[in-house]
Amino acid sequence: MTARIGVVTFPGSLDDRDTRRAIRVAGAEPVALWHKDKDLKQVDAVVLCGGFSYGDYLRAGAIARFSPVMDTVIEQARAGLPVLGICNGFQILTEAHLLPGAMLGNDHLHFICRDQKLRVENADTAWTADYTAGQEIHIPLKNMDGRYVADRRTLDELEAEGRVAFRYLDVNPNGSLNDIAGITNAAGNVVGLMPHPEHAVEPLIGTGRTDGLPFFTSILKKLVNA
């Protein structure tokens, strides 16, 4: 049997179908999960996809964090379930305190959509093992509230513990502190990032490269070899 990876759909999610396709391209079985349903259908991992859950009212991810499905996601993530948060999913993970820090509006106050160069800083997580540390990749980026912030103590801990997973290169597109594009929790099972790897799994779409595919092959290999 192949690994089953759930993708949560919230009101306002945009990239749930793209994420399910990326999972299928990687060779795993995508499982649709609904925000009102606490049952994760015995999936082996969960992706919180991009979009504008609940219209980004209050703050991006602030309402989605209280959806019934998140009770189970939080509980199981703390028990070791692999969870990936992409863009809005990253925002939800910070609101749920599964990852530290917060996401604020871009420093230039505009929505941004571009191909973004990144450097892989941590290739030891459940979602990044098919990369190598220091590898430079190109992943599509699209957000309005993508500026990662945290207090100095948290930033120092992330840096010292190697928990910055990805860093922006060439240009910081949103004012994120320390050029942070993505981070991981201490256990390495929860990863969040603003760029969209699901849009870079086939040469025909996105950047024209497949730099995002290793997110999904990494977790597939971990689950199959577990």
TrEMBL record:
Domain of life from the UniProt record: Bacteria
Localization annotation: Cytoplasm
Molecular functions per Gene Ontology: glutaminase activity; phosphoribosylformylglycinamidine synthase activity
Keyword annotations: ATP-binding, Cytoplasm, Glutamine amidotransferase, Hydrolase, Ligase, Nucleotide-binding, Purine biosynthesis
E.C. code: 6.3.5.3, 3.5.1.2
Active site: C87, H196, E198
Pathway: Purine metabolism; IMP biosynthesis via de novo pathway; 5-amino-1-(5-phospho-D-ribosyl)imidazole from N(2)-formyl-N(1)-(5-phospho-D-ribosyl)glycinamide: step 1/2
Reactions catalysed, as given in the entry: N(2)-formyl-N(1)-(5-phospho-beta-D-ribosyl)glycinamide + L-glutamine + ATP + H2O = 2-formamido-N(1)-(5-O-phospho-beta-D-ribosyl)acetamidine + L-glutamate + ADP + phosphate + H(+); L-glutamine + H2O = L-glutamate + NH4(+)
InterPro entries in the record: Class_I_gatase-like, PRibForGlyAmidine_synth_PurQ
PANTHER family given in the database record: PHOSPHORIBOSYLFORMYLGLYCINAMIDINE SYNTHASE SUBUNIT PURQ
Job description of the protein: Part of the phosphoribosylformylglycinamidine synthase complex involved in the purines biosynthetic pathway. Catalyzes the ATP-dependent conversion of formylglycinamide ribonucleotide (FGAR) and glutamine to yield formylglycinamidine ribonucleotide (FGAM) and glutamate. The FGAM synthase complex is composed of three subunits. PurQ produces an ammonia molecule by converting glutamine to glutamate. PurL transfers the ammonia molecule to FGAR to form FGAM in an ATP-dependent manner.
The protein's assembly and partners: Part of the FGAM synthase complex composed of 1 PurL, 1 PurQ and 2 PurS subunits.
Record-given protein name: Phosphoribosylformylglycinamidine synthase subunit PurQ
Origin species: Streptomyces fimbriatus
Gene that encodes the chain: purQ
